[in-house]
Amino acid sequence: MAPNSDIYQTTAQKIIAVIKNGAGEYRMPWNPIKCGGSERTMPHNPIGGYAYRGINIVSLWISQEVEGYSTAEWATYRQWLSVGAQVQKGQKGTSTVFFKPVETGEPQEATTENVDNDMARALFIARVGYVFNADQVDGYSSKPAPELSVTKRHANADRLVKEGGACIIFGGVIACYAPSRDKIQLPPPGSFRDMEAYYGVTFHELTHWTGHQSRCNRDLRNRFGSEAYAMEELVAELGSAFLCARLGIAPEPREDHAQYIESWLKALNHDKRAIFTAASKASQAAEFLWLDSIVDNHQQAA
């Protein structure tokens, strides 16, 4: 197992490198287009029956993109072995991060609390666990990806927008969340290039909306100082990507990333835990917005 500092540094540098590679095209490593969009599900473990969260979503998306894996199914060597599958000789695992409580010894995935909180960090030890994609395994048949109709995907996305509880005002040409009024303003849906672009922007603003003190109570000023605004934008971008992927929506890359990419890279280079915090808070926001009545794509395929 690598020391704690190595885990943060190695993961951060891997993500920084991929952001730099996609910066010219405004394509981030978490963009659902590069991760298969509606053809894929969120990264999940079919053996353990759970989805990955926070930084592990981003890390597994990157590996899926770089290696060209056709599935979002991941499990450890022993988990594959437990169902009669065998990791192919010479295959390399993809690192995931979990936190092992010092007292109980039970593993726990990286969360906002145990990444950000000094006391929590003292009680948890960061560890690396390696997982293998189903494409790297013999003796296992991946379940087919769900093929929800576009109409069904859009209907689910509309429900999330309408039933989320946010006050959304349509009009004008600017999309923004106004904290002082606790309201979102969006251009009319018909003014977007397509519905995928509309949902991507809407989920971005909804993620901002979750930061209100009455909801997720997300204030990054103490954590990031002058870089707090850029990091909040990174949280919103990740939150939107998580929701889009979960719903099977594939938004196009956004050119307004250009104004944030430099500040994102600065923050990530300055603080090796920054990407952990952003991904964790984005997961928290996405879970806050999610409706339990919308069945996860990978569950629908079961």
Number of domains: 2
Residues in β-strands, percent: 5-15%
Largest sheet: 4 strands, antiparallel
- Tally of separate helices: 12
Poorly predicted segments: 1-5, 34-39, 298-302
- The helix/strand series, from N terminus to C terminus, equals HEEHEHEEEHHEEHEEEHHHHHH
Evaluate the radius of gyration: 19 Å
Helicity, as a percent range: 40-55%
What is the typical, i.e. mean, pLDDT? 82
* Counted beta strands: 11
Folded structure, characterized:
The chain is an alpha+beta fold and about 300 residues long. The protein folds into two domains: about 5-140, no CATH class; about 150-300, no CATH class. The chain is about 45% helix and about 15% strand. The chain contains twelve helices and eleven strands. The protein has helices at about 5-20, 55-65, 75-80, 110-115, 120-125, 150-165, 195-210, 220-225, 230-245, 260-270, 275-290, 295-300, and strands spanning about 45, 50, 75, 85, 95-100, 110, 125-135, 135-140, 170, 175-180, 185. Strands 3-7-5-6 form a four-stranded antiparallel sheet. Strand 10 and strand 11 (about 185) form a beta hairpin.
Briefly characterize the structure:
The protein is of the alpha+beta class. The protein is 45% helix and 13% strand. The protein has two domains: 4-138, no CATH class; 150-300, no CATH class.
Topology readout:
Layout: H1 4-22, E1 44-45, E2 50-51, H2 55-67, E3 74-75, H3 77-82, E4 86-87, E5 94-101, E6 108-109, H4 112-116, H5 118-123, E7 124-133, E8 137-138, H6 150-163, E9 168-170, E10 176-178, E11 183-186, H7 195-210, H8 221-224, H9 228-247, H10 258-270, H11 274-289, H12 297-300
Parallel strand pairs: 9-11
Antiparallel strand pairs: 1-2, 3-7, 4-8, 5-6, 5-7, 10-11
Helix pairs in contact: 1-10, 6-7, 7-9, 9-10, 9-11
